[in-house]
Design goal:
Layout (H helix, E strand, L loop, with lengths): L14 E7 L6 H13 L4 E6 L14 H12 L4 E4 L1 H5 L4 H11 L4 E7 L12 H7 L2 E4 L5 H5 L2 H5 L21 E4 L8 H19 L1
Parallel strand pairs: 1-2, 1-4, 2-3, 4-5, 5-6
Helix pairs in contact: 4-5
This protein binds adenosine-5'-triphosphate (ATP) and nicotinate mononucleotide.
Nicotinate mononucleotide binds next to strand 1 and helix 4.
Length: 211
């Protein structure tokens, strides 16, 4: 059940970054951290887990799943970045459940959860958030304006003792969880929120021109 097109046999000790997201829509910021993750975490692949619905985000304004997945496939355009509908196929909605299911399904793979710094401040609101840290190592990538909030967050403080230095990030997939790193990297300013706002104001301007 690996992402469509995966030719890698299940038995290999594949090092895989799992990057969950709404991808509403996918953009260069996603690609930016996926490429950094491949390099800095010494991964074979990054799987973009396009979520059927983020449990903490409103349903209103969420583009249809098929549209978000198609957009992710277009933006990824890299043989080692694999957009996937795994959560839909597994029937999981919460990250903790997805990770446990993936670990069961691919017992020989080395997974690491990859996310941007904006996720850390709200992480303690995620369903069974401590289980996530206990299931796979976690890599957090810098994102403009979120670094300070991320490091003072409930999750960062709770797992402070389990943090490994960024220079050791390439060893994360080999570590027994909980283990996590914060990577101060080149940052990318783009967000899906901005793209949606720009699309909406473009549409309004078009309406004014026509009216
Ligand atoms: N510019 C970026 N820099 C770092 N991480 C990013 C960036 N854009 C997205 N991410 C990360 O990618 C994952 C999926 O993000 P998501 O699909 O929600 O995009 P988003 O731009 O944050 O969307 P929205 O603005 O709608 O919240 C998250 O872990 C998020 O932190
Ligand atoms: O499991 C949860 O409770 C949970 C709460 C919020 C977000 N997530 C996951 O976090 C990932 C990033 O979500 P998003 O919408 O910020 O791109 C995506 O895989 C979501 O399913 C998961």
């Amino acid at each position: 059940m690996a992402p469509t097109g995966s030719l890698v046999p299940d038995r290999r000790r594949l090092r895989v970054g799992l990057m969950g997201g709404s991808f509403n829509p996918a953009h260069e910021g996603h690609r930016h951290i996926a490429l950094l993750a491949l390099h800095r975490l010494a991964l074979h692949e990054v799987w973009w887990l396009v979520t059927p619905q983020n449990p903490l985000k409103p349903v209103a304004g969420m583009a249809p799943f098929a549209e978000r997945l198609a957009g992710a496939r277009e933006v990824a355009s890299h043989s080692r970045i694999r957009p996937s509908d795994l959560e839909t196929r597994l029937g999981t909605r919460f990250t903790a459940d997805t990770l446990l299911a993936l670990r069961r399904r691919y017992p020989t793979f080395r997974f690491v959860w990859v996310m941007g710094a904006d996720c850390l401040p709200e992480f303690s609101r995620w369903h069974r958030w401590k289980t996530i840290f206990d299931t796979v190592p976690v890599a957090v990538f810098d994102r403009p304006s979120y670094s300070l909030g991320a490091m003072s967050s409930v999750a960062a403080r709770h797992f402070a003792k389990n943090r490994v230095p960024a220079r050791a990030a390439a060893t994360l997939t080999m570590r027994t969880p909980p283990a996590w790193a914060f990577l101060h990297t080149r940052r990318h300013t783009l967000s899906a929120t901005r793209i949606r706002h720009e699309a909406a104001s473009g549409a309004r301007a078009g309406q004014r021109m026509r009216g």
